[in-house]
Design goal:
The complex is a heterodimer of chains A (450) and B (225).
Chain A lengths: L1 H9 L8 H10 L2 H4 L17 H13 L2 H40 L2 E6 L1 E3 L5 E3 L7 H6 L4 E10 L6 E2 L16 E4 L3 H5 L2 E5 L4 H6 L3 E5 H7 L9 E4 L2 E10 L11 E4 H8 L6 E6 L4 H12 L7 E4 L6 H39 L1 H9 L4 H38 L7 H28 L2 H7 L1
Parallel strand pairs in A: 6-11, 8-10
Antiparallel strand pairs in A: 1-12, 1-13, 2-3, 4-6, 4-12, 5-9, 7-10, 8-11, 9-10
Chain B lengths: L5 E10 L5 E11 L4 E5 L6 H8 L7 E6 L2 E2 L5 H11 E4 L11 H10 L5 H14 L15 H13 L5 E5 L7 H16 L3 E6 L2 H5 L3 E6 L2 E5 L1
Parallel strand pairs in B: 3-8, 3-9, 6-7, 7-8
Antiparallel strand pairs in B: 1-2, 1-4, 4-5, 9-10
Classes of the chains: A alpha+beta (450), B alpha/beta (225).
Chain lengths: 450, 225
């Protein structure tokens, strides 16, 4: 507001002496001093006193004079802008919804592993150890659901059997994989207990010899009940099977594995380090958790931790958006074109109707340009009004539909603002020719006309 | 001793066509500050053309028009508009008030183009409306006013920018006799204040009120005693 005022002041509205001043001058009898036009003694100064503020006020009064016509005039623009905004909004919302459903299954898993380096001998070794309290550290971060450490346990020549008998005649069966995990495993990888129970932090801390069998392995070993805690022998050491697990969405391979607490693996098999940390994050938190997790796990060398994180925006959403947009964008543009034609029509009609007013304004000292500016300003305002209403309705439609569907409405605010501005551009284009026509009207004929 | 306010020198205004129409032929006329002049003549005689030229709404085809010391032919459209806004007030038979704008707005309109500072506009408009006796009608729409009141609004609009020359084209043409008398009395009061007044009319009673009377017939002007 103050900027506008400064602008107006800079335009310098020079004072014109009123009738009293002139009368005083007249008495002196000096004609040049009696000239009431400041700065006109040499050559008349153009009457560019019609400030931007005046222009706006005149234009708003002009369009406000006929409210019903204003409504009809803006209708096309409202529809055009409204459908454009709604189209873009629906596309974004649907794409967001699809991405969200997709993400809910696939994009909430994060795997943290130590970075590897190649040794002189050609082996790859981890450059850092994941801390044993990694799950606790990670679960403190916002956006993390559950976390669990996993480590493959090497048995050397040892195998896993259901009976403590070494039958030399039996064919040597490959040992099923043995995986050590922390207590939060099932939550972190999306698994469930088929029967029995999972081990907890207590088992882990005490190094209890308990085991969970993957469902397929349990079948192979002939274990189908755990209420009597059958034992299996891992490299000859007895482990009590306390549960059978299945549905391991993110580590399906565990269905063929034996899972034992990390505490027991460290005590019995000399487990040196965990190989990975499985983290379940909430949708959208992936990138942020990934940034924070490396610092939480290795404050001194965050670069030594590698994170496979779900990306923030799935590629799917972009593809879906492009598909939906095209048809409706074309429709919206067509409506907008009709809206522009409507504004042009009504403005032309207004010029014809207001011929007398145009003549009068010219008689009062308006220049052709000022007359043209007024009509352009009016049509720009009509377009802007239509754009604002249309954009609002479009946003409202998107929100309403999303609310009904229990979706999250997504719309870029620049899209809505640009759409409103587009309405003003339509008004500008539509008002151009009528305004030129208004500027060409001769005051003489205009005033005689009515 | 005072230089002429407005001066027509051998002005001819011809409208192209077949045949060409000469609305004014070799007209010379001098108007001084404070003059009260009536122009009579039958319709089509060239009265309106002369008023348009005096009011810078039209230009002579031949001859010179000087207004307030300026040779108007030397001025561009912008400068003519500026001069028109500041030096001349118009009164029309049809009033030409904006129907959707209040009485006050209609008077304020005149100051949009004449360079009156914003903060002075409303006080000046109020004073002008007070002077024509319409201080109580500020927020009325012109359509709700009587003919006499409308013409008084138009007069307030014409004088609010402080012009030196008031041009009235059949100002009483749409008014009854009593109202005409009131309007003319108002004009004469303004004239006594120093404003030069030119009234075009075909009503002899109105014309006779003026100190100077000129008659136009077929584009030729004759001054009457």
């Amino acid at each position: 507001m103050s900027a506008l005022r400064r602008f107006l002041r800079r335009r310098g509205v020079a004072a014109v002496p009123g009738p009293d001043a002139r009368a005083a001058d007249d008495s002196s009898g000096d004609a040049s001093a009696a000239d009431p036009f400041v700065g006109l003694s040499g050559s008349p100064e153009p009457a560019d006193r019609f400030s931007f503020q005046d222009l706006l006020l005149e234009a708003t009064s002009g369009i406000g004079a006929r409210p019903l016509r204003l409504v009809m005039t803006t209708l096309g623009t409202v529809l055009g802008i409204g459908s454009l905004v709604a189209t873009l909004g629906f596309a974004q919302t649907t794409a967001g919804q699809i991405a969200r459903q997709f993400d809910a299954v696939a994009a909430t898993q994060m795997v943290i592993t130590p970075a590897t380096a190649r040794t002189g001998g050609g082996d790859t070794v981890a450059t850092v150890r994941l801390p044993w309290d990694g799950p606790e550290r990670i679960e403190r971060l916002a956006g993390v659901g559950h976390a669990a450490l996993l480590a493959a346990v090497s048995l050397g020549d040892g195998t896993v059997t259901a009976v403590p008998v070494n039958d030399p005649s039996a064919p040597a069966a490959a040992a099923p994989p043995v995986v050590a995990a922390s207590a939060g495993l099932l939550d972190a990888v999306g698994g469930r207990v088929v029967t029995g129970r999972a081990f907890d932090a207590g088992h882990d801390a005490r190094g209890d010899r308990v085991a969970l069998l993957g469902a397929r392995l349990a079948e192979r070993l002939g274990v189908n009940r755990v209420d009597r805690q059958p034992s299996i022998f891992i490299a000859g050491l007895p482990y009590a099977v306390i549960g059978v697990i299945d549905d391991l969405q993110r580590r399906g391979d565990l269905r063929d594995a034996v899972v034992i607490p990390i505490g027991a693996a460290r005590a019995d098999f000399g487990l040196a380090a965990a190989t990975e940390l499985q983290v379940q994050v909430v949708v959208g938190a992936g990138e942020q958790v990934a940034r924070q997790a490396v610092v939480a796990l290795a404050p001194q060398s965050p670069e030594s931790i590698e994170v496979a994180a779900p990306s923030g925006r799935s590629e799917l959403s972009a593809t879906v958006q492009a598909d939906v947009n095209l048809v409706f964008v074309v429709l919206g543009l067509a409506a907008l074109l009709a809206g522009g034609a409507g504004i042009a029509n009504v403005t032309t009609l207004g010029v014809l109707e207001r011929t007398g007013e145009i003549g009068l304004r010219r008689a009062l000292g308006a220049t052709r340009r000022q007359v043209a500016a007024q009509f352009i300003a009016e049509s720009v305002l009509i377009g802007l009004l239509g754009g604002l209403i249309g954009a609002s309705l479009g946003v409202f439609a998107v929100v309403a539909v999303a609310a009904l569907q229990h979706w999250t409405p997504i719309i870029d605010s620049p899209v809505a603002l640009a759409a409103a501005a587009l309405g003003a551009v339509v008004g500008l284009v539509a008002g151009w020719f009528p305004a030129r026509r208004a500027a060409r009207i001769e005051p003489v004929s205009a005033l005689r006309g009515s | 001793m005072t230089a002429a306010l407005a001066e027509l020198l051998d002005v001819t205004r011809a409208f192209p066509g077949d045949p060409e129409v000469q609305a004014l032929k070799d007209v010379s006329l001098t108007i001084n500050d404070g003059d009260y002049l009536s122009i009579v003549g039958p319709s089509g005689s060239g009265k309106s053309t002369m008023l348009n030229i005096l009011g810078l709404l039209d230009r002579p085809s031949v001859g010179q028009y000087r207004l307030a010391g300026h040779v108007t032919a030397d001025l561009g459209d912008h400068q003519q508009a500026a001069l028109r806004a500041r030096a001349i007030g118009f009164i029309f038979q049809a009033f030409h008030l904006l129907p959707h704008r209040s009485v006050l707005d209609n008077v304020l309109l005149a100051m949009l183009y004449s360079g009156v500072p914003r903060q002075e506009r409303v006080p000046r408009a109020l004073a002008a409306l007070e002077r024509v006796g319409l201080g109580h009608r500020l927020h009325f729409l012109p359509t709700t006013l009587s003919g006499g009141e409308r013409q008084r609004v138009a007069i307030a609009r014409a004088v609010v920018s402080g012009p030196r020359l008031l041009l009235a084209d059949e100002p009483t043409g749409n008014l009854d006799q009593a109202t005409s008398g009131e309007v003319m009395a108002l004009f004469e009061e303004l004239n006594r204040g120093g404003l030069a007044l030119v009234v075009i009319t075909h009503d002899d009673a109105i014309a006779r009120r003026a100190a100077r009377r000129v008659r136009i017939l077929d584009g030729r002007l004759s001054e009457q005693a």
